[in-house]
Amino acid sequence: MIGLYVHTPYCTVRCSYCDFYLVPVRGHDPGRFAAAAAAEIETVAAVESLTARSGAVADTLHFGGGTPSILPAPMLEAIVGAARAGFRIGPGAEIALEANPEDVRPESIAAWQAAGFNRLSLGVQALDDLLLTRLRRPHSAAQALGSVRAAKRAGVPSVAADLILGLPGQDRDAAIDGIRRIVDAGADHVSIYLLEIHPRTRLGRAVALGRVGLPSQDEGADLYERAAAGLAACGLDHYEISNFARPGHRSRHNMKYWTDGDYLGFGPAAHSYRGGRRWSNAPDLRDYLQGGGRRGRRIEEPDRPDLRGLEALFAGLRLVEGIDLESLRRRHGRWIPADDDPRIASLVDQGLLGRAGPRLRLTDRGRLLSNEVFERLIPEEGMAENAAAAAGPPGQFT
Q1: Does the global pTM surpass 0.90?
Q2: 326 in helix, strand or coil?
Q3: With bands split at pLDDT 50, 70 and 90, how would you rate the model's confidence at 358?
Q4: Distance (Å, rounded) from C-alpha 112 to C-alpha 108?
Q5: Domain annotation for the chain: domains and CATH numbers
């Protein structure tokens, strides 16, 4: 089974922290994009069905962006229909839609459900109206909480919410209280991300110019630990560094990324990983539309078994269950350290990695220092270049 991802490149406004590929929806015809995405899915599915692989069968379909909830429901339904026709998506598949709270209304939820969506992932980010304004988010805290409640009332099987920690001016007690309120509203899954500063963003430029101050690393770590403890107390399992879920509500699509699974991406800037190969569509909506989704420019990543192995190692360690090191080594060869590797022994001795039978996992302290752990697992041989890329997820991680 493979995962399918559709990158919707439209937003009403770019948030101050965002460096994803997107364009303003104003002045664009999203219908052209929907038709191109459906055509790309049809084309790729035809190729998949002719290969000697397991066949064109998928068990997850995730709409990310950008803001997929901007698209009218008939357009979303057309893309879902193309995916169902091309990849034989079964009735038990996870079909997820990322949505902004301001787009969530009873009639829109009903239309999304009719189109086949059974999971909503809501971009809440904060429950503080002043912070939301600074982030250029177009919704209020009340709208965010209302969107979770409305989705639960409508019977959406799984409702997720994203939150950012470590924002400039964020009150730590208020942030923790916001997480509790999201859970109390009915969220089945909560993602908490420590703020990342990207230099080309509005926020990144403000930080570089000294106009905005950020919490210290220790303050960020303390806030993360408090948030994790609070979510655990609410009954959500901490199953990945940034993700918490009630039983049965893990993101099945994102599990593809963390368990070295295959996935295909559609739309401009979408990434794919299949049979050990990684490629992406060019981040260029105009090119994508001119080719009707069938002839867009593709960026093939170099064949680097070393990077593929390290990506699988680091992604797997993000999960609370960790990884079966020997199983991963059989798949990716010598680029995966052996069980008796001195680097692993050192990290275990320092309490950053732990063993559970054949599996290796990050400890609680190791989660806080995961980047350091990953850097120390990078072999010197052949990894002078692009080593940092292995530790970071593709842009479509959610």
Answers
A1: yes
A2: helix
A3: confident
A4: 6
A5: 2-257 (3.20.20.70), 308-391 (1.10.10)
